[in-house]
């Protein structure tokens, strides 16, 4: 009832006069693809509402929600408890990628066994993506040889381009590197599971601005876009 009343007050208020702040946590991919759009639209509709964004791994964001250090988080899932409300914002298709210098044929249909000899470049343990994929790998009885971890998608792509291993990366975001020949997109079956992204907050939260930010995020978030902030491809030999 309190949440409904707060939302009614917000909807009846003059947007130009409404004030408040939301401590928003997002993962790196959200920051790269959608955060600027969310901030811009919020500034346009509610110029006196302040968004306080921070970028962390999904597990860290969840822990900070638990400690009431954040009001809202946009991250992959679901993996949280019943105490949290979540709204689906979109999804991301991740694909296996590798340097053309590695002995893997991008035109061939590959199995997980074909990938076994190669080190996997992945995100660290505080990543929600690693948490979700580790569970899926276990369900599929897939053995993944992690050797390198990086907390930056750009660094993961850079290490893959250098031929230091294979990696699973957002297909749309890194498509320009595939088009340029810096990376190869591998055809591996079964496909990696699609990753869903949610706006997550505690059900007990009474900040009336949270739902407004979620409504804006539902319109502004698009995670399946070609990257604008991509690592430089290494020089080609010869």
Automatic annotation (TrEMBL):
Record CDD domains: PBP2_LTTR_substrate
Keywords: Transcription, Transcription regulation
GO molecular function: transcription cis-regulatory region binding
Superkingdom: Bacteria
Pfam family, one: LysR_substrate
The LysR substrate-binding domain, residue ranges: 18-221
GO biological process: regulation of DNA-templated transcription
UniProt-listed PANTHER family: HTH-TYPE TRANSCRIPTIONAL REGULATOR, TRANSCRIPTIONAL REGULATORY PROTEIN
Recorded family membership: Belongs to the LysR transcriptional regulatory family.
Protein name per its UniProtKB record: LysR family transcriptional regulator
Species the sequence originates in: Bordetella ansorpii
């Amino acid at each position: 009832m309190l949440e409904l009343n707060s939302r009614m007050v917000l909807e009846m208020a003059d947007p130009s006069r409404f004030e408040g702040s939301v401590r928003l946590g997002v993962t790196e991919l959200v920051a790269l693809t959608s955060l600027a759009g969310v901030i811009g639209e919020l500034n346009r509709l509610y110029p006196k509402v302040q968004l306080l964004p921070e970028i962390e791994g999904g597990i860290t964001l969840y822990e900070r929600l638990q400690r009431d250090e954040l009001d809202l988080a946009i991250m992959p899932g679901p993996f949280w408890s019943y105490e949290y409300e979540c709204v689906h914002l979109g999804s991301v298709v991740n694909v296996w990628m590798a340097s053309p210098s590695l002995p893997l044929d991008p035109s061939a249909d590959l199995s997980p066994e074909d990938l076994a000899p190669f080190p996997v470049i992945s995100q660290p343990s505080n990543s929600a993506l690693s948490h979700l994929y580790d569970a899926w790998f276990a369900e599929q009885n897939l053995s993944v040889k992690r050797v390198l971890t990086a907390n930056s998608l750009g660094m993961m792509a850079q290490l893959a381009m250098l031929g230091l291993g294979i990696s699973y990366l957002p297909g749309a975001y890194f498509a320009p590197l595939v088009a340029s020949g810096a990376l190869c997109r591998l055809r591996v079956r079964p496909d990696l599971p699609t990753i869903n992204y949610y706006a997550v907050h505690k059900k007990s939260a009474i900040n009336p601005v949270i739902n407004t930010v979620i409504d804006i995020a539902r319109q502004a978030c698009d995670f399946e876009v070609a990257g604008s902030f991509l690592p430089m491809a290494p020089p080609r030999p010869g």
